[in-house]
Automatic annotation (TrEMBL):
Pathway: Glycan metabolism
Name of the protein in question: O-fucosyltransferase family protein
Transmembrane segments annotated in the record for this chain: 131-151
Species of origin: Psophocarpus tetragonolobus (Winged bean)
Gene Ontology CC: membrane
Length: 608
């Protein structure tokens, strides 16, 4: 370091004492400057090598600082002196001119180097030119892709584009579990409500039971099914004999079907012979059968909804013992779930999943329809069953607001006022009620909404869909968005010939039974609104092992998504997929007041 400082002082000192002539680049000058230092004994060849480079660097720095000092001076005196022709104390005038020329050439060289990316200058290396062109191309490509992405995001469709009555939704990639639940999630439970053969019956003879009970199974086919299961359970609770239930004519269904027109009576009685005494008809010794249907003395009418088992023991059994035959009326949902013994709930599952079987001709026709659904493409294909609840009666009863013309809304208001006058009142509160129900997810999904949800889940246009539905409110115009997005959409009337269905038309419940079985056998079942049909299907598919996918849309979340004007398609798809990962019929723990028919897990299934 000491030698370096001495050398700096020596160089600068010689520069200042050498007069006006200071030819830095001459060989003689370099030799003159270096010769005194070379005589020093401490200098070695290594040091000379380093010092040699240092000399050039020192001279360059000195030249640069001198030129800057002469060019960039801001002092008025110095500017005046320069204007008068004063020269630098270190650098002669001719060298200043050469230096300015050098800087001009350097600036041109720099400009030429910067422009070499975009010029064909032959002095530029061909290799460097190719690299420059490559980098330029990559830069333009990235810029184009970025602009395209930004443009795509700014112009992303709000869910789906509507073209008249046709919806156009973006494509979604199919997930691996599109047609069945993951195997790992479906192997922990197995059904265990079936009859145990070989067990000795502990039932007393018919004439030694506490008496007879008789019920009217009201409503549609599935409400009647639940009533039959509850009747068997109540007979078991009171140790009574059950008279084969009567399927009562419903005001909506207007069907006079008998039990034996739908269900296999022999199988029903035989399968439950170890649990309950069941007889086909009222005993012969009871002569006045009309009294059983009309007399108040023979009817128990004060049974509350979802009554506990103890209520029947305390309030109904004494009257049966007294009168010997009693009718329970009404009997819709007159037995609870978590307030009865576990064995009683298991018995209800035994009735529902094992004892109640449809007649063989109904089973065979349903098998034929399911087979046709699986072979519509010429080879084996999965199919979806859609329970679409959008009939006029359902729309009216929901008191929800739906898209439509003013004329349609006016007609629906008149219909509601006529059918449900107490709920309608003057109609002023209905708009707020409709908004609240939609926000809570209590409104039926429209066909167009169903189409958007299914597309977001990843189901392609080619999906084969079996529709179980009544007459859709709004007709073909209302169905158009769903049918255009999923053209392979059929009903039983389109899948079977008129002659094949004629044998089932005399009983409306027979046609409903066909829908029930085809939906039960499907690869994927989708419900759109609550009801006994959907929950019985979902419960039965769970009882069969949870592998069959049963989708229950989160209508509350869907309502918020459909009403969000800023939600794009990608966000909507993510919400739908994530939300419905656990709404596909997988095992769920039961909870207080749970619905046994939709989730038979705890009482009717055992750990595998």
């Amino acid at each position: 370091m000491k030698l370096k400082l001495e050398f700096d002082e020596y160089v600068v000192g010689n520069a200042r004492t050498s007069g006006s002539e200071f030819p830095w680049d001459s060989h003689q000058t370099r030799k003159t400057l270096l010769s005194p230092l070379l005589s020093q004994p401490l200098l070695t060849a290594s040091y000379f090598s380093h010092s040699h480079s240092f000399v050039y660097r020192s001279m360059a720095e000195l030249r640069h600082s001198s030129s800057l000092g002469s060019r960039a001076s801001n002092s008025p005196m110095k500017r005046d002196a320069l204007a008068a022709g004063d020269s630098s104390p270190l650098i002669p005038d001719n060298l200043l001119a050469d230096d300015d020329e050098h800087h001009r050439h350097s600036s041109k060289d720099r400009d030429r180097h910067m422009c070499s990316f975009f010029t064909d200058d032959p002095r530029v290396s061909p290799h460097n030119s190719r690299i420059s062109l490559l980098f330029t191309f990559l830069f333009l490509l990235v810029a184009f892709l970025s602009l395209f992405t930004i443009f795509h995001k700014l112009n992303a469709p709000y869910l789906c584009k509507k073209d008249g009555i046709v919806l156009h939704c973006p494509h979604v990639k199919e997930s691996p579990s599109l047609w069945e639940n993951p195997f790992s999630s479906t192997t922990s439970w197995k059904p265990c409500a079936e009859r145990r053969d070989g067990v000795l019956s502990e039932l007393p003879p018919e004439n030694e039971t506490n008496g007879y009970i008789f019920i009217h199974a009201e409503g549609g086919l599935n409400q009647q099914r639940i009533a039959i299961c509850n009747a068997v359970a109540v007979a078991k609770i009171m140790n009574a004999t059950l008279i084969l239930p009567v399927l009562k004519q419903d005001q909506i269904w207007k069907d006079q079907t008998k039990f034996e027109d739908i269900f296999d009576v022999d199988h029903f009685i035989d399968y439950l012979k170890y649990d309950v005494r069941i007889v086909r008809d009222i005993p012969k010794w009871f002569t006045d059968k009309s009294e059983l249907f009309t007399s108040i003395r023979r009817t128990v009418k004060n049974i509350p909804k979802y009554a506990p088992a103890q209520f029947y023991i305390d309030n109904v059994l004494p009257r049966i013992k007294e009168k010997k035959i009693m009718a329970l009326k009404p009997f819709v949902d007159r037995l609870g779930y978590d307030n009865v013994p576990a064995e009683i709930n298991k018995l209800r599952c035994r009735v529902n999943y094992h004892a109640l079987k449809f007649l063989p001709d109904i089973e065979q026709m349903a098998d034929l329809l399911a087979s046709r659904m699986r072979n519509r493409t010429g080879s084996s294909n999965p199919y979806m069953a859609l329970h679409l609840r959008f009939e006029k009666g359902m729309v009216g009863l929901s008191f929800c607001d739906f898209v439509g013309t003013r004329e349609e809304k006016a007609k629906m208001a008149e219909y509601r006022k006529k059918e449900w006058p107490r709920r309608y009142k003057n109609g002023s509160h209905l708009w707020q009620l409709a908004l609240q129900k939609r926000k809570e997810g209590r409104c039926p999904l429209e066909p167009g909404e169903v189409a958007v949800i299914l597309r977001a889940m990843g189901y392609p246009k080619e999906t084969q869909i079996y529709v179980a539905s009544g007459q859709v409110y709004g007709g073909q115009n209302r169905m158009a968005p769903l049918r255009n997005m999923f053209p392979n959409l059929v009903t039983k009337e389109e899948l079977a010939t008129k002659e094949e269905l004629d044998g089932f038309r005399k009983h409306v419940t027979s046609l409903a039974a066909l829908d029930f079985l085809v939906c039960l056998k499907s690869d994927v079942f989708v419900m759109t609104h609550g009801g006994n049909f959907a929950k019985l299907i979902i419960g039965a598919r769970r009882y069969m092992g949870h592998r069959l996918k049963s989708i229950k849309p989160d209508k509350g979340l869907m309502s918020k998504s459909f009403g969000d004007p800023y939600m794009g398609w990608a966000t909507f798809v993510e919400d739908v997929v994530v939300t419905h990962q656990t709404r596909t019929g997988l095992p769920e723990e039961t909870f207080p007041n749970y619905d046994l028919w939709e989730n038979p897990l705890t009482p009717c299934m055992c750990r595998a």
